[in-house]
Every structure is written in structure tokens, then in C-alpha cells.
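[SOLVED] Predicted holo structure with coenzyme A

Edit: marking solved, answer below. Original request kept for reference. I posted the sequence and ligand SMILES and asked for the 3D complex as C-alpha cells.
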Amino acid sequence: MRDTGLVLRPATDSDAGTVRDIAWRSWATAYGPFVPEDDRRVFFDEFYGHEGHRRAVRSERSLFLVAEDRGAPVAFVLAAHARGRVHLHRLYADPGRWRHGAGQALWDALVAWSRRRGAERIEFEVATEGDSGPRFYRKQGCTPVRERVMPVGGTPVRVTVYEYRLTAPS
Ligand SMILES: CC(C)(COP(=O)(O)OP(=O)(O)OC[C@H]1O[C@@H](n2cnc3c(N)ncnc32)[C@H](O)[C@@H]1OP(=O)(O)O)[C@@H](O)C(=O)NCCC(=O)NCCS
């Protein structure tokens, strides 16, 4: 871990607002140039509600971690394991703290957790036009598999499906 002040801990119910804020700021910086604020708000109102957060915190098949730097939350990861695969739902760092190692620490924890659960691969989607996301995942050795279009509010957003193999292909 590059930043020695970083601590990873499980997310709790009271992290709902914090996690949403980190994701919101991350989206504004990464996707603001091609997803208008109104459309981002529609998406967040649908997918960042308190009830969904509480379910994710309690899910036995999910990994939900918050990275703190000297007590301040700076990034989080949410992923779920099903049928041999781990789906990475969210990995966001506060833009004020990008390139400080929190994303890497959470990714490493995700890979270790996925291996312990015996998963074969990690799968996820990243906005193709984003910059930090695609660069980060290429650094991790993830492979782009295909592209699709996902509506965010009224904006069609191109997303790339990636996979990261935890076992060598046979
Ligand atoms: C992707 C993201 C989570 C990375 O978080 P982070 O805390 O900045 O990542 P780290 O500091 O641990 O970076 C680890 C390595 O990834 C690579 N990397 C990360 N961001 C990069 C960028 N903008 N440009 C080039 N390389 C980058 C670097 O190799 C970096 O190591 P280095 O800084 O020592 O060179 C963060 O940029 C983010 O929230 N992006 C916007 C949203 C997004 O695309 N999230 C993924 C959707 S699931």
C-alpha cells in the first residue's frame, strides 16, 4: 500500500451518504464532460438509495469496503460473487485523492477476496470515454471484452465490459 495512512474497513449503514458523495464527485470529474448533471442525478436517485445500501452492507456474497485516510473516507469498493464470477459493481475514489493508492488498495483486496471465494474471474463495466478508469484497469491487467451502450438518464453512454482472470485459461 503506497499511502501508509490508508485503512480498509467494511462499509456500515452510516456510510450511505459518504459513499454516495464519493461516487457523485468521482462521476462529476470522470463523466461530467459527457453525462449531464441531470442525467447523473436520475441515475444516483435510482441506484444510491439507503435501502440498497443497507442490503449491500448485509449481503453475505458481497464485498463492501471503505478506504479511509487518517479517519476520512476517500474511496470504496462494492462487488458481489455469483456462479464462479465476481461482479465489480463500484470502485470509486474521491477525485481530490486520485493517484494516492486507495484504488489500488481496494482492487488488491477485491482480488484477494475473490480468490479466497474460489471465483474464476472478476467482471465489470467502465465508461469507455472515461480516462482514469480505463487506465487504472489496464494497469491491473484487465482485458476489454466488448462494448455496449447503457442509458444514464437520457444519455446513452458507451461502456466497455472488462474481465480479470483469477485462474489461468485452460
Ligand atoms: C479508477 C479509480 C478508482 C482509481 O483510483 P485511485 O485511487 O486514483 O487509483 P490509484 O492511485 O491506486 O492508482 C493505481 C494505479 O492505476 C493507474 N492509474 C490510476 N489512475 C490513472 C490515470 N488517471 N492515468 C493513468 N494511470 C492511472 C496508475 O498506474 C496508478 O499507479 P501510479 O499512480 O503509481 O502510477 C479512480 O480514478 C476513479 O474513481 N475514477 C473514476 C471512476 C471510474 O472510472 N471508476 C471505475 C468504475 S467501476
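OP edit: Residues 100 and 129 are 22 Å apart (CA to CA). Thanks to everyone who chimed in.
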